[in-house]
Amino acid sequence: MIAVTGANGQLGRSVLRFLTDLTDQPVRALVRTPEKAQDLVSAQVKVAHFDYNDPAGLPGALEGVDRLLLISGSEVGQRVPQHAAVIEAARSARVEFITYTSLLNVPDTRLILAAEHVETEKLLEDSGIPHVILRNGWYLENFAGTIAAALEHGAVVGSSGDGKTSVAGRDDYAEAAARTVAGNDLSTRAVELAGDEAITLQDLANEISKQTGRQISFQNLTEEDYAGVLTDAGLPEGFAKAIADASARTAAGELFNGSTALREINGRPTRTLPDYVAEVLRAL
Fold it and tell me: What is the mean pLDDT of the segment spanning 146-168?
């Protein structure tokens, strides 16, 4: 049996769609609130309660599970103890193989967002459980708010200068996760998942301009000023600081990787910037 944590999230739901196409194995969708995930239930997929913050309840939810996809938690600052509890529960339940969604270029990157992934990768190494670490690049979907703000204010803002970000769509990463956790290679390894495109924020501004017929500029701010813009837009201060940090470190190449593994795993090109911008514009 395959189990997927965070199965009611956007990435988790996408993974489940691919898994049910790829394999006939039973799948356990692990969610914090089962009553909110009943639409996931099928002949192949069953839903089970799984709360990262309830370590005592985790081993039972993993009984009978051979392979686990550990989707990293969304609570920045709480993820290390949460992931540690899941990994310990997996060991207690005799899970044979774990796939984990990490971040591009860990452990070499100094991004604030990378720190908890570095620690989780070490926990997996120490667990003795065979595992694959999928180091996901930046999601195109992360630019949804940037695009909307650019249309409102006439500019894309950030602190990345002319630094390039390796990007792909959420479904690209989800398919790779599904193929990995359901695949035949159960060796321990780490894989850098970078999209086919590497873009600058100027590229994003140019694409919005092209598709809207408006002149959208790129304004390169200091990291501190960009964090202020994000906070003013409603982001919590800590998260705004982490996003501004990621943007600034992009200028130093920390969100770029030339790996082609994502395309190779999925056997197809990754999603393009023009395609994603068009989707956002249609929705707006």
Answer: 97
Per-residue model confidence (pLDDT) at position 280: 97
Q: To which CATH superfamily is domain 142-164+196-257+270-283 assigned?
A: UDP-galactose 4-epimerase, domain 1 (3.90.25.10)
H helices, E strands: number in the chain: 11, 12
For the entire predicted model, the pTM comes to: 0.96
Superfamily of domain 2-139+169-193: NAD(P)-binding Rossmann-like Domain (3.40.50.720)
Residue 41 region by backbone torsions, left for phi larger than 0, else alpha for psi between -120 and 50, else beta: beta
Q: Which of these, 252, 273, 269, lies nearest to 260 by C-alpha position?
A: 269
* Tens-place pLDDT, residues 126-146: 999 999 999 999 999 999 999
Q: Which two tokens stand for residue 106?
A: 């860990």
Q: Which position has the token pair 């703000």?
A: 149
| Residues 6+ positions from 247 with CB-CB distance below 8 Å | 158, 159, 160, 201, 223, 226
